[in-house]
Amino acid sequence: MQLEDDFMWIAGNAFSEMRLLVEGAITLFEDDAGCLCRLARDEGAHEANRALNDIGTALYAFRTHIKSLQEAHHKAALQEPVGRAKADKENMC
């Protein structure tokens, strides 16, 4: 079961790191995008405005997916696999 344990540990760390990165990216986007959107709107650069909107949408969707992965990982980590429980019982005998 070492391989499964390693995978769960690596996945948990990767999800945490991805979450921190996307939260940082969203913070930067929210800080800078407002000014950039106003500039694009004032200049009539509708394509640039739409592009910034698309970037924001993608960041928020990515955060939602990472949250879902983290929740699923947490639930899986709390559950004892059937095979492991059976092997532990057999080793006790």
Task: Characterise the protein shown here.
The longest helix has 41 residues, at 2-42. The protein has helices at residues 2-42, 46-78, 82-92. The chain has 3 helices and no strands. The two termini are 19 Å apart. With 93 residues, it is mostly helical. It has one domain (2-92). The protein is 91% helix and 0% strand.
Give the proportion of residues in helices. Answer: over 70%
| H/E topology pattern | HHH
Strand content: under 5%
Q: Specify the overall morphology.
A: rod-shaped
How many strand units?
0
- Content-based structural category: mainly alpha
What is the residue-averaged pLDDT? 84
Domains (count): 1
* Cα-to-Cα separation, first versus last residue: 19 Å
Largest sheet: none
CA-based gyration radius? 21 Å
Uncertain regions spanning at least 5 consecutive residues: none
**Treating each run of at least 4 consecutive H or I residues as one helix, how many helices?**
3
List the main descriptive attributes of the protein structure presented here:
single chain, 93 residues, mainly alpha, 91% helix
Task: Compile the SSE list and pairings.
Elements (H helix, E strand, L loop, with lengths): L1 H41 L3 H33 L3 H11 L1
Could you provide a short overview of the structure?
Helices cover about 90% and strands about 0% of the residues. It has one domain (about 1-90).
